User: What shape does this take?
Amino acid sequence: MYKEDDPGALRRGRLLYFPAVPGRMEFAEEARRLILAERPQVVAVELPVTLEAAFGRALDRLPELSVIVYDDQEKDRAVYLPVEVADPFVEALRTAREAGIAAAFVDPDSGDRPHLDEDYPDTYALHRIGFEKFVQAYRFHRRRFPPAATAFAEGVAWKLQGLDPEAKVVVVVSLNLLDAVMEAMERPQAQPFRRLKRQGARVLNLHPECLAEVLTEIPYLQAAYEAVRAAGHRLDRQKQVLRLFAEAGREYQKNTGEQLAHWQRRLFARYSRNLALSQKQLIAGLFDLTVAARSIADDNLAWEVWERANQYPHQRVATDLMTVSISGEEMFEKTRRILLRRRLPRKKARLRPMGLRGRKKEAFPGQWRKETRGQSICSYPPEDLVIEAYGDFLKKKGKSILSEERARTEPFTTSLLDGIDLRETIRNWHQGKIWVRSFQKMAGEVGAVVVIFDEDKQNRYPYCVTWLGEHQNESDMAFYATHPDERLVGPGIGRAEYGGFLLSLPPLRMTDIWTDSDYEFAESKPERLLLAALDYSLEKLVVYVAARPPRSIFRTIAGRLGKKILYLPLGQLSPVSLKKIRVFHVLDSHDRRAEAKEYVW
Assistant: This one.
């Protein structure tokens, strides 16, 4: 990339051009590597010469981050320029200072910088294909430069032509201005009208809580870059995002007591990737990462992702400069907003008005355990209604998916069949035809539902129970869960969490599946539930909800029994709804039901 034997070369005599995408870590890494390898006499950066003193003050504070603020009198607004460690222009100045190389600001500040199309490809591609191919591909597809950009490039070229004619210079310039500057350097330039001094430029300290809103790069990523910068190691943005999510997940478990399942981690990666692709990027930005976290879990996880991403350990509140908290709306014209409602148990939130009874507590430690009779067990009816309703929902959803699979689409001839297929009609609009759908009748109903939250490879759910429905509308149920005795919430009332369960109608037919020798060849608890579902279902269809489909042998077993397994990925269901049905309570007798409402929460 540093050869000069072709017209597109970046080395032109004593000048070596380094095109950069502002604010991106990959280009900051490349800028530092280039300067340390070339050891030029001068590093020229495309920054306003009138802000040289302000940038010098901000560089003195690194790795603490600053923002340069000045007033634009013509447009009656304030202009903010964050000074970030992962910005290639800042990195070039910082590396030059550390290596004892002279720095030059080559933007003569002759007017507002022209607005160019900054729809750059995702800079993560540089990590995969290399700097040279990235720059070549961008330059090959560049558009024409407007007159304002040409004039701006001529001002930069005038400053470059005024540098030491014998000095070896590395020129750090924006990638979208590279060719305009190189073309302007081919001819002598006259001195442009320019500002000699910019009044009121100040350097302020950024408040640690606002970094994620105003920085180009994620603060967490910049902290990681600062940690490896001196050693010259390269960071993989994708690995850092996964590490960020893992740390947020651990904090989420610590604060809420809920653990992320492997299917949620996989779904986060897939969903954030799709959000990135919708923005024409390879790796999602912080906003999309937050949206993905909320979608696969809840607002609490999204909050943890945002908080973890905002962490930058070098930033302080108390410094020798004024500390300011700036919102993204103050800095950027186009912003996206997300509202997070964090739901965590807080002492103040639990304060109740006078006269309102609180939840009952033990008079002394171990009181409720002593009052547990342990003679029998039963469920809590309100929770039975919820889980039965969700089972009905899964039955309908399974049948609807099977109906979609068996639907047939064809051009309209003499009959509308079961209705117009708008999607297919629009897709084939150029043919001038209307497409209609035909739904084939599906024989059979759903006789059993299996839901697997956790495959329990670590035996976290040792409580394996089969209990029978108490009336004709209540299913027989088999499940494995955490032991309710480990978390008593009342006398004889234990709180547990499902690892997986089976629902089967009609009731009063199911024996204890956990001791049934017919299912001994099952390799796991989910497989035992599925075998029981196939065995006890009186209908042809069995819905199986899990993070991954069952082994292929179960399709064979189902076929021999005249059944069909309808697999639903767990990630397609609402995390909020799953969370509501996953927790349940076990009572030690039917008598407890009358008082359970005072303890169950």
In short: The first strand starts at residue 11 and ends at 12. The mean pLDDT is 87. Residues 11-206 form one domain.
